[in-house]
Amino acid sequence: MLNDQHLWSVGLFAYAGLTDLLDGYIARRWNKRTVVGTIIDPMADKTLMTILTVCLAIKGGLPVSAIYYRWISLPEPKTFSRYWDFSLPSAEVRPTTISKYNTALQLLLVGLATANPVIPADISSVLSVLHYVVATTTIWSGASYIYTKDAVKLLHQTSKDGKSQ
């Protein structure tokens, strides 16, 4: 992406998307879900989206505000180290419906922005509308994890006396 290798970028993005779909299908079809998988899979999705968003912003393919909207949609506290601290997987996260739509829309936006240099038609107006739609669904998705009762299940709770329940 950063070296203007657009066909490679599109190909690798498609590969990542297809393998993610296949992984999810296998986990659901043969009931191979794990607690670690419920954390790592969405984290990998967000990592891909974050890296591509930053690269597209650097290359002018997405407005810098896309990075801002992604950041404000993260739940508190908003620290890079806390977000990626794997010693904290004390919860099982169940994707909300809006988060699934949001991921699909993010993939569509990043995919179109990645493919834009090799698409012969002008899709700038489509991308502009999609920027606002994705910003809205990203915020909505973040809020859904905060306000949906069963989206996050604590695996280990500590009681008031400090003992694990």
Automatic annotation (TrEMBL):
One of its GO terms (cellular component) is mitochondrion. One of its GO terms (biological process) is cardiolipin biosynthetic process. It is found in: Membrane. The keyword Transferase applies. Keywords: Lipid biosynthesis, Lipid metabolism, Membrane, Phospholipid biosynthesis, Phospholipid metabolism, Transferase, Transmembrane, Transmembrane helix. The chain crosses the membrane at residues 6-27, 48-71, 129-147. Its main location: membrane. It is a multi-pass membrane protein. GO terms for molecular function: cardiolipin synthase (CMP-forming); CDP-diacylglycerol-glycerol-3-phosphate 3-phosphatidyltransferase activity. InterPro entries: CDP-alcohol_PTase-I (IPR050324), CDP-OH_P_trans (IPR000462), CDP-OH_PTrfase_TM_dom (IPR043130), CDP_ALCOHOL_P_TRANSF_CS (IPR048254), Phosphatidylglycerol_P_synth (IPR004570). Signal peptide: none annotated. It holds the Pfam family CDP-OH_P_transf. Belongs to the CDP-alcohol phosphatidyltransferase class-I family. This is Uncharacterized protein. It comes from Parascedosporium putredinis.
